[in-house]
Design a protein that fits this description.
alpha/beta, six-stranded parallel β-sheet, globular, 303 residues, 9 helices, seven-stranded mixed β-sheet
Length: 303
């Protein structure tokens, strides 16, 4: 029996992880109640008892929790951080098992793993196979457009949409300094900073990430079939990531994968115009957050 402590289990991601772990044989969940949840001594004591700690905290609080664990020395548990605090940090393994061949094994043996962001999960899945195959240059001027359900925006956004009604649609991050950009660059294999334009719609969960391409500007002048072939080869055998045929209607809605941990990839194209749009669809609370965390927890605990 492996023991797990979710530090920050009362938030959206923490609750999602707890719900998923409750039904898994071989895992015992341990918790703190009341004021002890914010008591450093109580948290450190529980960390010394468990096999793995999941951090579902704001970035600075996540760093403080890591410091608490560091005080335990050899008694320190494995750690999975769902915040953005350690996604590009040295000595942390990025928790996207399908990233490259053998990466799931690296997660399984890691002491510290950073859970990916929801938007980067879709963008990296679309881009990394193409940069690895040489179809997309690392310095290509990439634009990433994305829309998410409001559940990924934290407590204030959730309340705004559910209690007041909220806007039908909003662009945000227009300072072009979104905190997901560094991990997107690093793990997609990009050397040029991409334009990343996120948005939120008036629906609870679900996500679409889209990347437009002018095919004639790519050195290999690929066709859509070439992009699809590379994506399918990269994710061959992946249980949760699928490359599927683009809808003939040219339409795609964001909620079809809600309450699943799946990630779907598509290539929409107009060969006459030599243009394509790569699209990833996922549940921002599933493969984009809690589902990805549980996938990593299983690997880290050998389940």
């Amino acid at each position: 029996m492996a023991s797990v402590f979710i530090d920050g289990e009362a938030g959206t991601t923490g609750l999602g992880i707890r719900d998923r772990l409750t039904g898994i044989a071989g895992i015992e969940l341990k918790s703190l109640t009341g004021d002890k949840r914010k008591d450093p001594a109580a948290r450190r004591a529980l960390m010394a008892e468990v096999d793995l700690v999941v951090l579902c905290l704001p970035d600075e609080a996540a760093k403080e929790s890591v410091a608490l664990a560091d005080c335990l020395g050899e008694q320190a548990p494995k750690m999975l951080d769902a915040s953005t605090a350690h996604r590009v940090a040295p000595n942390w393994i990025y928790g996207f098992p399908e990233l490259i061949a053998g990466h799931a094994g690296a997660i399984a043996t890691a002491r510290r793993v950073s859970n990916p962001g929801c938007y980067p999960t879709g963008a990296i899945a679309l881009l990394r196979p193409l940069t690895e195959a040489g179809l997309l240059p690392a310095d290509y001027p990439v634009t990433v457009n994305a829309v998410s359900g409001y559940s990924g925006g934290g407590k204030a956004m959730i309340e705004a949409h559910e209690k007041v009604g909220g806007p039908a649609f909003e662009l945000y991050g227009l300072s072009l300094a979104h905190k997901h950009v560094p991990e997107l660059m690093k793990f997609a294999g990009l050397t040029r900073r991409p334009l990343f334009v996120p948005s939120v719609g008036h629906f609870r969960q679900g996500m679409l990430v889209s990347i437009p391409l002018h095919l004639e500007t790519l050195p290999a002048r690929p066709k859509a079939a070439d992009l699809i072939a590379v994506l399918r080869d990269h994710f061959a055998g992946a249980e949760l990531v699928q490359v599927v045929e683009a809808e003939a209607s040219g339409k795609l809605e964001p909620e079809a994968l809600n309450n699943t941990d799946r990630l779907e990839l598509r290539v929409f194209a107009n060969e006459d115009a030599r243009q394509a749009v790569l699209v990833a669809r996922l549940d921002n609370l599933g493969k984009g957050a809690s589902g990805a965390a549980v996938q990593n927890i299983r690997l880290m605990l050998g389940l």
